[in-house]
Amino acid sequence: MESCARILSPTHFPSLFPLPNLNRSNFNPVWPKKPEASKSLRLHCHKMYVPGFGEASPEAKAAKNLHNFFTYVAVRIVTAQLESYNPEAHTELMEFLDRHSLNDGDKFLSNLMRESSRHKSLALRILEVRSAYCKNDFEWDNLKRLASKMVGESNTRLMREYVTETSPDAEK
């Protein structure tokens, strides 16, 4: 993701930083100062600034969550496959799932690999399925469409509820 950031001085925002009246009686040749590099105002073109994410962007946080979700999906796929053709491995994986959380996909798979050689084979299968699902089967365009649709519908519903609750007709 490219950013087209530029450094703007206060003189780029005349409504926020009005320039002084330049008549001789109150002229101050020092003001306005050019901002120091560390005090510069940074703007990103075409992107909204999202404060409070520290080291990662919102997209990076969402990618981490999707990464863990793909592990969950891969585990579900593998357990369904094992149920029909290898009931013993299915039982072992289900017992492991009872003892270990799937919240952190990489930690789960790391623990699974170290459990036993049979579990290592299951972990390698889950890694393979996770990668294939992410690359080939997950519908990225559909995700964007559904997320946008959900935000729009939710915003409309919440605004409608608020207007209904606060309008004078609603109090009758």
UniProtKB/TrEMBL annotation:
It holds the Pfam family RbcX. One of its GO terms (biological process) is photosynthesis. One of its GO terms (molecular function) is protein folding chaperone. Keywords: Carbon dioxide fixation, Chaperone, Photosynthesis. The keyword Chaperone applies. InterPro entries: Chaperonin_RbcX_sf, Chaperonin_RcbX. This is Chaperonin-like RBCX protein 1, chloroplastic. It comes from Cucurbita maxima.
